Amino acid sequence: MKAQVLTAETGPSALELTDLPDPVPAEGQVVVDIKSCGVCFPDLLMSQGKYQLRVPTPFTPGTEVAGVVRSASAGASVAVGDKVLVASIVGGFAEQVAAAPEQLLPLPAGLTFDQGAAMGINYQTALFALKVRAQTAPGEIVGVLGAAGGVGTASIAVAKAMGAKVIAIVHRTGAEELLREAGADEIVQLEEGWGAKLKEVAPEGVDVMIDPSGGEVFDEALRQVAPDGRYVVIGFAAGGIPTVKLNRVLFRNIAVVGAAWGEYVRTHPDLPALLHDELTEMIEAGLVPLVNQTYTLDQLPQALTDLAEGRILGKAVVKIAE
Hints:
Layout: E1 2-6, E2 15-19, E3 30-39, H1 41-47, E4 64-71, E5 83-87, E6 96-99, E7 104-106, H2 113-133, E8 141-144, H3 150-161, E9 165-170, H4 176-182, E10 186-189, H5 194-201, E11 206-211, H6 218-223, E12 225-233, H7 246-251, E13 255-258, H8 261-267, H9 271-284, E14 293-296, H10 300-308, E15 316-319
Parallel strand pairs: 8-9, 8-11, 9-10, 11-12, 12-13, 14-15
Antiparallel strand pairs: 1-2, 3-4, 3-6, 3-15, 4-5, 5-7
């Protein structure tokens, strides 16, 4: 099979398209023919040796797999031909992967493989942040920083499906159509004076602020949270790790909470299946995972470079097979 292999932790340029032996499943494992694999920030960090989980090189990255079961042992929970998503840490940027049955989730009816791969970490993270950590209620106002990225667009869509009013807060220009398609009710451009503009559409502030970016906008963003509100830290895509001035937290009676989906799954392994069931219900009710850009397997280094340099709006997927 063909696979992208990371030969050194020096970034996307260290990926090589290679012919590898087909995977030999361990006892009880299932082999999946991969059709699509999402491109996500952990893939980029792993290529740079900056992710919290370090996998010795050489290895094949790829965490958001959609495909078809190729082989399964007797008595397995899936059968040959089943369309599945694979919750995997590595191995997705290849033509096949071996996985344990408990890593598999059913592809929701009506979705393409590209859309299934786009669900992956982003939609799981969005629902985890909004429901489990922030306990977002229908009718609340949700602000989404980094709104034009993969986690941002997923957070907009999930918040809207939960009955919230959604304000997209975006740095990149030219994203308005994308953000409206995701479900944003209002759009605030992240430029000088953006806090005052947000106050025009949410005078009391937002009930929930979703932040996958961190960086220098944190202080102003914290000011935009209404009393009793929740500021949800998902990551630090902008590079800087901000500090919290606790007097603002205390006197405004707000909460700053973390939403590290991957770390939570380590101690709550049943979480992905529970979130997937709820996301499937949202999809049945009309939510559609967005796929905004596609690449082929040989273009993976370019895809990760584009992600690193901010050239991907929304969600990108690598198409591996028809």
